[in-house]
């Protein structure tokens, strides 16, 4: 597997795992909803959870973006190497 394939595979895995994390977080919301859980502790949990969930979703989004940019960078570097080798052999 070359660098480009490895980078694409890493991005694919990151996206898959990030999606799994987001699906798991989505399952918590109905379980902790005001209809299911009442009282001061439930309210504190929901406030804390909303804040943490937002931070996790942002981190996952940022990671996806950084990884996608890294894939583009690796593809560019590998293309430059191929062009350099082609120019040397000409």
Written overview of the protein:
It contains two helices and no strands. The chain has helices at residues 3-31, 40-89. By secondary structure, the protein is mainly α. The chain is rod-shaped. Helices cover 88% and strands 0% of the residues.
Distance between the termini: 27 Å
Q: List SSEs in N-to-C order.
A: HH
Q: The biggest beta sheet, please?
A: none
- Given as residue ranges, the uncertain stretches (5+ residues, pLDDT < 50) are none
Structural class of the secondary structure composition?
Answer: mainly alpha
Helix content: over 70%
Radius of gyration: 21 Å
- DSSP strand content: under 5%
Number of domains: 1
Strand element count? 0
Let me know the average pLDDT: 93
What is the helix tally?
2
Identify the overall geometry. rod-shaped
Write a compact overview of the structure shown:
By secondary structure, the chain is mainly α.
Topology:
Elements: H1 3-31, H2 40-89
Q: What labels describe this entry?
A:
90 residues; mainly alpha; 88% helix
